[in-house]
Amino acid sequence: MSTLSSDALNPGVKKREVFGWAMYDFANSGYTTVVITAVFAAYFAGAVTQGAAWGPLAWTAALSASYAIVMLTMPSLGAWADMRAAKKRLLLLFTLGCVLSTAALAFARPGDVALAVVLIIVSNTFYSYGESLTGAFLPELARPESMGKVSGWGWGFGYVGGMLALGLCLAYVLWAQGQGQAAEQFVPVTMLITAIFYGLAALVTFMLLRERAQPMAAAPGQDTGLAAALRQLGHTWREAQRYGDFVWLLVCTVAYQGGVAVAITLAAIYAEQVIGFKQQETMVLIFVLNIAAAAGAFGCGYLQDRIGHKAALALTLLGWVATCVIAALAQTKGQFWWAAAIAGICMGSSQSAGRAMVGLFAPKRQLAEFFGLWTVATRLASIIGPLSYGAITWMTGGNQRVAIAATTILFVLGLLALLPINVGRGREAALKAI
To answer: Among 118, 283, 353, 423, whose CB has the most other CB atoms within 10 angstroms?
Structure first.
């Protein structure tokens, strides 16, 4: 953070506040890394469902249900947060919800499918809400020309948090296995470790991050509650033509984030069921993937401010295509490691670049609302990608290689949707809305 120049920040913004903002990415990345990617996903498919053939489908269906909830509710919540200047208050509420429901996953034992599904839906919904709201603070902190590097600092720092949380869990798992414990004994403890890590790290955010927005003035007798937020959201959709580049960015996001969601939610299952990784090997794999993702987020943050957001995102999408092809053809663990390394770099850079572009295209008075629309796109993608993967696997008699190869289509569609976007025009439209 010391290498981040004050010139990159808006007037009045201190580096410690950016650190506080980045600490939220640091805090919540433990949830995605341990629960969604590395540990609980494989535990659910193997132990909770007791190895049933429908285990991976149940996992993707639970995540899809949470994403559907977020799609239907986050834009209105974002619009309400803008009207009430309540981003930080809502962020605190959503953080508590995710922390508590993650801790409750410790009670999900083999056979407790219904409990595990409900808790995954609840925890992932709260996580998604928090991810959207923390992104809405970005334009308040960073100057437009530095949006990429500041976003990259957040994503990169987030992967460091994911590595630390996973490292703590891995250390415990190795100790527990040395004591002869089975997965149903040590996995619940990793859920408690993750929840505590999330809660403690997020405290830094709430201590340092300010709510700079001001409540929108309401006319006498005008409702400023949920109904008004819904009306404002409808108004935004009706005026979508004014923000054509933002709309194309949403289309692009739905496509490529669908592929990213496959990597996040199914990497552990693919590594163990197709390549033959053991559980501790999978955790090490995801740990290294997070190192690559942190490097990708940091590096791309500076790269996109130099070569342009659109070009940087296009490069990462080409990298994702290469990742899927290598993963589909990999026959050994060593070959799969190459795919994982490229995926890590592309994961950090593509997510950082996308968030920075949303920050450029979002009007100042509608930050949470526009980031809410972006969340709709990412969550729709998170339904389309994993469910498509699951459907292709089912239709091909369990051939996950075909499914991962087909995921390249999503990244190609993302590249095609990126072509019409003009970053300068999109930024100008956002400035005219002020």
So the answer is: 353
Q: Which residue reads 């953080």 in tokens?
A: 95
> How many structural domains compose the chain?
1
Token pair belonging to 179: 């004591």
Domain-located, residue 155: yes
Is residue 51 within 8 Å of residue 201, measured between CB atoms? Answer: no
> How far is it, in rounded angstroms, from Cα 158 to Cα 28?
7
φ, ψ dihedrals at 142, nearest 5°: -105, 145
For residues 83 and 369, is the Cβ–Cβ distance under 8 A? no
Rounded Cα–Cα distance for residues 254 and 66 (Å): 16
Q: Which residues contact 49 (CB under 8 A, 6 or more apart)?
A: 55, 58, 113
- How do the pLDDT tens digits run along the chain, 434 residues long? 555 566 777 787 888 888 998 899 999 999 998 999 888 988 998 889 887 767 777 888 899 899 888 877 877 787 788 778 888 999 999 999 999 999 999 999 999 999 999 999 999 999 999 988 888 888 888 887 777 777 777 777 888 898 899 999 989 998 998 898 988 899 999 999 999 999 999 999 999 988 876 776 554 444 545 565 566 556 666 665 678 899 899 999 999 999 988 887 777 788 888 898 887 788 888 888 878 877 777 776 677 778 887 888 899 899 999 999 999 999 999 999 999 888 888 877 777 777 778 888 888 777 777 777 887 788 889 889 988 887 888 788 778 899 999 999 999 999 999 999 998 888 888 888 75
Residue 216 lies in a domain: no
Site of tokens 């999978």:
282
Task: Read off the amino acid at residue 316.
Answer: T
State the DSSP H helix or E strand holding residue 28, giving kind and residue range, or none if neither.
helix 15-30
66, part of any domain:
yes
- Specify the pTM: 0.77
What is the residue whose two structure tokens read 């060593």? 334
What is the full DSSP assignment across 378-392? Answer: HHHHHHHHHHHHHHH
Q: Residue 167 sits in a domain of what CATH number?
A: 1.20.1250.20
- Residue 366 is assigned to a structural domain of this protein: yes
Find the domain containing 103 and state its range: 13-210+230-432
Instruction: Provide DSSP, 163-215.
Output: HHHHHHHHHHHHHHHHTT--HHHHHHHHHHHHHHHHHHHHHHHHHH------P
